[in-house]
Design brief:
Elements: H1 23-38, E1 43-45, E2 55-59, E3 65-76, E4 80-87, E5 90-100, E6 102-108, E7 114-120, H2 121-134, H3 145-182
Antiparallel strand pairs: 1-2, 2-3, 3-6, 4-5, 6-7
Length: about 180
């Protein structure tokens, strides 16, 4: 699966509820875990892979793989802390973000069974970060406005360079193909 990057409109849209936990959703969950691990992430939300569904997967420092379908945050602590965050959709850019230390959430698991989880520390932070994706919010929206501006510019520059490199590769391939056809 391809992880969408900052600038893609889907990342800024609010996700829709999952209607049924069926084989298609279970396959999506499996693919999301594979993608998250391949990208060295700790969480991945469905909008990040082009699916506007209220679904995310995480694997925090406790090593437990968790799936959250149609999650609802039901409580947050008043105590907060700052911690550096990054995002697979904003690669290689990090910023300190303030978030509540504890969070309560209810959701469905990968089998469609409801559960409630009270989380704190790193797990609570990942849950909040991924939940934000379902609302069309990215971590840069919660930090320093100057950092957000620079992040947007950096990602746009990277995308422009990537497109230029792709065009150059295609031109080279076409040149080689025309030389082969001429021989």
């Amino acid at each position: 699966m391809k992880v969408l990057t900052l600038g893609n409109e889907l990342l800024r849209q609010k996700s829709l509820p999952v209607e049924e936990v069926n084989d298609e959703i279970k396959a999506l969950i499996e693919e999301m875990f594979i993608t998250m691990e391949a990208e060295n992430g700790v969480g991945l939300a469905a909008p990040q892979v082009g699916k506007l569904l209220r679904l995310f997967v995480i694997e925090a420092d406790d090593g437990i793989k968790r799936t959250f379908i149609n999650p609802q945050i039901t409580g947050m602590s008043t105590e907060t802390c700052h911690l550096e965050e990054g995002c697979l959709s904003i690669p290689k850019l990090y910023e300190e973000i303030e978030r509540p230390v504890k969070v309560s959430i209810q959701a469905l698991n990968e089998h469609g069974k409801p559960f409630v989880l009270d989380a704190d520390g790193f797990l609570a932070r990942i849950i909040q970060h991924e939940y934000d994706h379902l609302e069309g919010i990215m971590y840069i929206d919660r930090g320093d406005p100057e950092f957000k501006e620079k992040a947007i510019e950096t990602i746009a520059r990277r995308e422009k360079r990537r497109l230029e490199k792709d065009a150059l590769k295609q031109a080279r391939a076409a040149k080689i193909a025309s030389k082969k056809a001429g021989n």
